[in-house]
Amino acid sequence: MQEADKRIVSCALTGSIHTPSMSSALPVTSADLIEQGLAAVAAGASILHLHAREDSGRPTASPEVFEKFVRPLSEQCDAIINITTGGSTQMTIDERLAAARLLAPEVASLNMGSMNFVYAGAAKPGIDWKYDWEQSYLLNSARVPFTNTFEQIETALRELGRGLGIRFEFECYDIGHLYTLAHFRDRGLVEGPILIQGVFGILGGIGAHHENLDHMVRIADRLFGSDYQFSAFAAGRHQMNFITHAALAGGHVRVGLEDNLYIAKGRLARDNAEQVSKAVRILDELGLEVATPDEARQMLGLKAK
């Protein structure tokens, strides 16, 4: 790993796992995403990782919906825009790539493999559902895997990377995903500096145990040497202790309501900015500086905005 002098804070604003009934703070509308995105950047985030939702809160891949908040965020702040190509298990590859094709962000996320991606456990008994789609949507994750085949990964690399000059945040949910990434690097479809986002604690992927983070870094070091930047996060209650570990290991951090709705045990976060502010405080207590968006661009090999 190329240990950074400063740490990049990414904020994943809304994702496609949590539903509106779980927290009123979850941003849903374009206005919500603009307001919370700008507040997260003001709190210290250099990268905004973006999903989109319909007005009912249901995840959508619609490029027209993305455009309503991506363009204003790009115009009103200097953060790096990172558009998902993951979306949800219920979207086709063409749907998942559509927003990045239209908007050509600086960065797009790319999941490095097919997997069981299960969040059905969030459909707990006793929830007063606001919308009729929520419970069945959550339960369906136990029936339908997330697919990103080698052919689909190559399509994204060629169309978005070579075709539009988009760089990637490679999301690795297991050790095998690192080897898949190395395969595409060896074929010349991935160039450094590589941004690896280690994802821990998703049911179906690598567990949120700290030795797993150390192991992922060791294997990434073996495969990519110093030609990569590492970031990590864990879903749910492990969020803050995992970003602390990632920062101490020389890597970057990610927070946001996509990954965890809480700011502390039993207390829902007011918004994304509250989590960003806590991450910045943790980094400060560790004696680590937070990278500005332009410093993050330099570390990740991005063009100046």
Structure description:
The chain starts with 5 loop residues before the first strand and ends in a 5-residue tail after the last helix. The strands form 4 sheets. The chain has an 8-stranded parallel β-barrel with strand order 2-3-6-7-8-9-10-11, surrounded by 8 helices. With 305 residues, the protein is an alpha/beta fold. It has a single domain, classed as Alpha-Beta Barrel (TIM Barrel), CATH 3.20.20. The protein contains 10 helices and 14 strands.
Summarize, please:
The chain is an alpha/beta fold and 305 residues long. The chain is 39% helix and 18% strand.
Question: How large is the share of residues in beta strands?
Answer: 15-25%
User: How many domains make up the 3D coordinates?
Assistant: 1
| Poorly predicted residue ranges | none
Oligomer: single chain
Main beta sheet: 8 strands, parallel, barrel
What number is the mean pLDDT?
Answer: 96
CATH architecture: Alpha-Beta Barrel
The number of E-state strands comes to 14
CATH topology: TIM Barrel
Class by helix and strand content?
Answer: alpha/beta
- The strand order across the widest sheet is 2-3-6-7-8-9-10-11
Name of the top-level CATH class: Alpha Beta
The whole-angstrom Rg is 18 Å
Shape: globular
**Given the structure, what is the number of helices?**
10
CATH superfamily: Aldolase class I
